[in-house]
Please model this.
Amino acid sequence: MDVKFYSDVVNFSELCYSFLAKHEAKNNLLFGILNTLKRNIHAYGSLERPRLITITKDEEIKLISIRTPPYNQLLSYTDDLESISVLVDTLSTKEENIPGVLGFKEGAWKFARAWASEHKKSVVLNMHERIYQLKSINPQTLGDNTFEEAKQSHTKVLIEWMKEFIIEAMPHKSQEDIINSQRRMKEAITRGEVFILRVNDQIVSMAKKAGSTPNGRTINAVYTPPSFRRRGYATEVVAKLCQNILDEGKKYCYLFTNLANPTSNSIYMQIGFKPVIDVDELLFQDQINDNNQS
Model:
């Protein structure tokens, strides 16, 4: 198999388009990241250029992998698991400091076990997630509260909610991660990608349009403050944002859920989301020497 690294994100994205589109729902995160990088190569806060990699066999792409330092290695979906072994071997020769891997469950674990063995690391499951896809909406979840695009005047509240969302849903994230996420939220508000649900004049929930795929759009940053929960607001804001995306001409909506939160998974299935594939985020840690000193 051949491994190639790329420096031009536009050319890389064009080259990978057909491969990623074969499993569009499974690769929705990579589509979104590539679109973000095309808009701003340093969107994820690092001055280092992203690592853009293809693994090919007989000139046919078998695997795509991306990393935006200092974050995890990301894997596309592949049915050729040998390509993951080739990726590990290649990255090992480059002395990359990889903190973890994110990808479809079988592929992520294959990468993680090989990397951990090669570099004497331990593997920790940080998050067990599931990708969902929606084709049509259960009309009973649309509700009758006010749904609208967030305005600049909402920025202060929503970037604070973004901080609360990350602390609650991704407690392992650093302060720098939180600041970068708040910056991207502010930019998304400016682009008209953040939406809110209002009850009278009170904002009660939010959701954001994230990465685009050829036929779909991903939703993330779904958040309702604790004082407004258990009233159906998250269900309603997501259902209405899905309707907005479908009305714009997309065929599908996607989202990731943490399988440790059965409530959110139940909510999304009520709206009309169907499971696609499980995704694991695995982190690498230095192995502890248990030899006792006498």
